[in-house]
Structures are given as structure tokens and as C-alpha cells.
Amino acid sequence: MELSEMRNKLSVSGKNGIGFLLSAVVIWSIITVIFLQPIETYQKNIFMLFSTGLMFPLSIGISTLLKADWKFKDIPLGNLGMYLNVAQIIYFPILIWAIVKNPEVAVIFFAIIVGAHFFPYGWLYDAKAYYIMAPLISVIIMTVGLYLVEAKLWLIPLCMVVLFLILILLVYIDYKKKFNHAH
């Protein structure tokens, strides 16, 4: 199987990772609610980290409901998606530093890390939306973060929800084109 054929098969059978993106919408919605609570920012950050523990089981559940294959046993590139996802954990020391030293910016750091980690999925799924949205998410979050005061940090996760919904729409359109072409 040639490379472009593998990437196309990953894109169609995995539905461009939409199950994982929908899970992210749920997680960032939870984080928005957390940041609307009248508790200290440090506590909000801890709850934010805990909420991410839902990501993998929720992604598997949503992918199952969507009938999206994320295991890819028959495609040599299949495990690359998981490695790309785990790679973002390498940036977590930056996030931990922010939580300890400057809790008010931790959610901004986290949002930028999450947004930026989608860039290589553009190559994996051969989906331009990831190439466009990854840097756009990072720049939008940085810009919103530059003009926020601590009392409005909930805008960061809310922006992530909106940006994820846009990304989902774009990768869904890409998936439908590839699916229709394949069938």
C-alpha cells in the first residue's frame, strides 16, 4: 500500500479523528464550567487537569458510536496518531510550571499546547483543516490571553470549544469528500 493510499484509508476509516475532537469539545466545555466557578485559579487548574482524564475513554466511546476505527491494525501508519497525541505530554512541564508559578496563565498555556499538537494530523490524515486550525488556535488563544484579566479566564476554554467545533466541521467536510470519492 503506498503512502497516500494509507493516509487516505486512515482519514476515511478513522473519520479524520472526529471522535477525539468531539471528546475535546466535551472536555473543554467542562473546563469552561470549571473556570466559571468562584474558586481560586490554582484549584481551577487542578480540576482542569483532572477533567482531561476523561479524554481517552470518552474518545473511544464517541468513536465507537460514530463507527470510526482508531486502532488501524492493518495500516502501518496506524499507531502514528497515538504517538502524535502522546507527544503533547512532553510539553506538560511548561504547563506544570505555569500552574505553580503563574496559575492565571496555565489555561492559556494548556490551550496553546492542545491546539498546536494538531498540526501533524494534517499530514497523517491528509487534511488541510489541521494545518490551518492548529496555528490559528494557538494565535487566537494567545491573542485572547494577552487581553484577559484573571476574572475572565473562562473565555479561553470557551474559545477552544468554538474553535474545535469549527475544526470538526472542516474535517467532517474533508472526510465526506474522501468517503464519497472512495465509494
Range of strand content: under 5%
Spatial separation of the terminal alpha carbons: 18 Å
**Radius of gyration from the alpha-carbon trace, in angstroms:** 17 Å
Quick check: average pLDDT?
Answer: 93
Instruction: List the secondary-structure elements in sequence, H or E.
Output: HHHHHHHHHH
Main sheet summary: none
Low-confidence segments, given as residue ranges, are: none
In DSSP terms (H or I, runs of 4 or more residues), the helix count works out at 10
Find the count of extended strands (DSSP E, 2+ residues). 0
Given the helix and strand composition, which structural class is it?
A: mainly alpha
Protein name: EamA domain-containing protein
Organism: Aquibacillus rhizosphaerae
Keywords: Membrane, Transmembrane, Transmembrane helix
Transmembrane segments: 20-39, 45-68, 80-99, 105-123, 130-148, 154-173
